[in-house]
């Protein structure tokens, strides 16, 4: 399996977290980026927790979380069989086969599990500034129906035990969609804006919420990825290259 993926002309072998992890992913179509690593950094998991990623792709976010927090039990859900197959290979080649697995499943059809500690997700979203990609796989990963986010959050609610958390990354201009989706059944919502550089508008938000909580929404100071010289900030380097945590969850 590993040799076939390595030699396939439509698959690349790429590094994550400054080479601590390696993943096979499609040469064209949806490829992981900073969003996956930022998402993984914000999941408030601890050793022994049961976690699930919705829409895992080739598993970049799940692997980043597994490398940061030892002893997790992780399931990576992905509806595309080809991507799910690559995710399973990536789990094995990075040494996590004993604690993680990739499952081909559309989580909008039915909540896949129960009594999880954490669910994290990077759902497809519509970007008003971009034309739809001609590549079907990339278009599927980045273009969403209007109710997709709410559906994914409902599935997360069904999969979590009371007190469990959901963490997601979304486009910044869709913050109202995020807070609306987290209204039912969640509280203690915390939002972290992500800015690409100073004096630029935010392009992403990370949100965390706790099932059954009633604490009010909290907005954190932003994370700025690049300085005025367009070089990565120290905070961005710590997260994207060293695998540092991005603690945003309310206790």
Q: How does this model look, in words?
A:
It is globular, with a radius of gyration of 17 Å. Strand 3, helix 3 (60-68) and strand 4 form a beta-alpha-beta unit. The N and C termini lie far apart (42 Å). Helix 2 packs across helix 3. It contains eight helices and eleven strands. The chain has a single domain (2-240), classed as Rossmann fold. Mean pLDDT is 90; it is low at 128-135 and 137-143. The strands form two sheets. Strands 3, 4, 5, 6, 7, 8, 9, 10 and 11 form a nine-stranded mixed beta sheet that branches. Strands 1-2 form a two-stranded antiparallel ribbon. By secondary structure, it is of the alpha/beta class.
Topology:
Layout: H1 2-7, E1 11-16, E2 21-26, H2 34-42, E3 50-54, H3 60-68, E4 73-78, H4 81-93, E5 100-104, E6 116-121, H5 136-142, H6 148-159, E7 160-171, H7 175-181, E8 186-195, E9 204-211, E10 218-219, E11 223-224, H8 234-240
Parallel strand pairs: 3-4, 3-6, 4-5, 6-7, 8-10, 8-11
Antiparallel strand pairs: 1-2, 7-9, 8-9
Helix pairs in contact: 2-3, 6-7
CATH-assigned homologous superfamily: Vaccinia Virus protein VP39
Which structural class fits the helix and strand makeup? alpha/beta
Portion of residues within helices: 25-40%
Radius of gyration: 17 Å
- Count of spatially separate domains: 1
Low-confidence stretches: 128-135, 137-143
The major sheet is characterized as:
9 strands, mixed
- Give average pLDDT, whole number: 90
Number of helices: 8
Query: What is the element string, with H for helices and E for strands?
Result: HEEHEHEHEEHHEHEEEEH
